[in-house]
Amino acid sequence: MRSAVWSWCETLQRTIGNRLGQALAYDGIGQTMRALDRIPEAIDFHTTAARILRDLDQPWNLAQTLAHLAAAHADNDQPEPAHQHRAEALTLLDDFTDPRAAALRQRLQELTAG
């Protein structure tokens, strides 16, 4: 059910031409796929979201999506892409000082160090 709702959101955002909304929907679908242990699909959705967010120059949303993508790769026993996506997300987070960014930065640093 949750996946169907996200899919509907993505379709709606694409139909109305909201690329940011579409990217966020793809990221959400990726999170749902990961929760359902459908990791290859999660990776595909997060990768698509990241591509759109790069095109739109959305560093905050891209950092979050890359963190999700890194987690999916880690779940898929792919440590190298997981590390690369975490590193890119950390670089993007350098420009943000708010508490949410600090929390994400700390979590990514712990995962990178561990």
Concise description?
The chain is 85% helix and 0% strand. The chain has 114 residues and is mainly alpha-helical. It has one domain: Alpha Horseshoe (Serine Threonine Protein Phosphatase 5, Tetratricopeptide repeat).
Model description:
This protein is an all-alpha fold and 114 residues long. It has six helices and no strands. The chain has helices at residues 2-16, 19-35, 39-56, 59-75, 79-93, 99-113. The protein is globular and about 40 Å long.
Strand content: under 5%
**What is the name of the CATH topology?**
Serine Threonine Protein Phosphatase 5, Tetratricopeptide repeat
Instruction: Name the CATH superfamily assignment.
Output: Tetratricopeptide repeat domain
Oligomer: single chain
Please write the string of helix (H) and strand (E) elements: HHHHHH
Rg measurement, Å: 14 Å
Report the major sheet: none
| Helix/strand/pairing category | mainly alpha
Shape: globular
| N/C terminus separation | 35 Å
Protein name: Tetratricopeptide repeat protein
InterPro entries: TPR-like_helical_dom_sf
